[in-house]
Each structure stands twice: as C-alpha cells, then as structure tokens.
Amino acid sequence: MSIRRRTALSSLTLAPLATWTAAPAWALGKPVGPVVLTLRGKVSTVNEGGAAHFDMPMLERMSQRSITARTPWYEGPRKFTGPLLRDVLQAAGAKGTTIRAVALDGYKVDIPFEDAMKFGVVMARLLDDKPMPRDKAPLFIIYPFDDKAELRAPQYFARCAWQLRTIEIV
C-alpha cells in the first residue's frame, strides 16, 4: 500500500471522530479517586449505579475556563477556574429543563438548564489559581457576573452554589 493511500485511509477513518461534540458513553470512565460530584436524574451517560460520578482528576481533564468576577461573597474581583457547567452536563448526557444543585450543607437551588448553555457558567474548582477554600469546596457554580450586567441580580447570585456535591437533572 502506498504512503499516499495509507494517509488517505487514515484521514477517512478519523474524520467521523473530528465531528463529535459530545463524549461517547465509554469516554466518561470511572472515578479512581474520591467522588466530588454526582449527576443523576435525566442523564444518559452513567458510570456507576445509574448516575454519572466525577472525581477531581476527571474534572481537571476537561477544558478549563477562567472568569474574573465581583461577587457578594468576596471583596473585589476574584478569578474562578473550572470546566463549564454545560461541558459537565454534556459529558453526562444530561437533558432536561432544570438543574437542581445540591450542596454539602443541604442548600438546594434550581437553575434553568438554559442558563448553562447561554451564560458560560463555570463549575469552579480553583479560586485565584488555588484549590477552592474549604468553606466553598469542592466546587462552586459561578456565573460570569462581570461579563453581562443582567447577571448582577439577586436571582443569579442565588443560583450560585458552593460546596456543590450533587446535580439532579429534572
């Protein structure tokens, strides 16, 4: 087989992979460390017990986004880094209308599913390039408040959940 033909065949074989936007079901894998986030409900990509479980290394391997925002919880602007909420939802094959975020302290908040798609909401695991502080760890759902004036409103501040542990897709 000529080199030219082999290259052409390789290109054809890989072409379908380049068009995928969601991770295939087998790509989620299983957590090897402590589970820091569980998605349940209307999720189609699961890795154990009918839910999608993530450890911190799984979240770290996802594309990371940093936003700098002023919030009611911190003095001055702070940098929040982590995967986009929509990417985590996509990895779990989540489809629904409501994201119910549940924190370790029992706080629950319903977030419209469209917020994750529309606003670039970050599931922050880092604050100012350091692991999220204990009182907000392991994860903090944060909106890009300084990017859009409309987000600097009580309804969006209330949708931020720190110490995030579980997401239920309704």
What are its keywords?
5 helices; single chain; four-stranded antiparallel β-sheet; 170 residues; alpha+beta; globular
Tell me the Rg in angstroms: 18 Å
Number of extended strands: 11
Poorly predicted spans? 1-26
**Spatial order of strands in the largest sheet:** 2-1-11-5-6
Largest sheet: 5 strands, mixed
**How would you state the average pLDDT, rounded?**
88
Q: What best-fitting shape do the alpha-carbon axes yield?
A: globular
Q: Strand percentage, roughly? A: 25-35%
User: N- to C-terminal separation?
Assistant: 53 Å
In DSSP terms (H or I, runs of 4 or more residues), the helix count works out at 5
Order of helices and strands: HEEHEEHEEHEEEEHE
Percentage of residues assigned to helices = 10-25%
Oligomer: single chain
Secondary-structure-derived class: alpha+beta
Question: Quick recap of the structure?
Answer:
The protein has 170 residues and is α+β, with helices and mostly antiparallel strands.
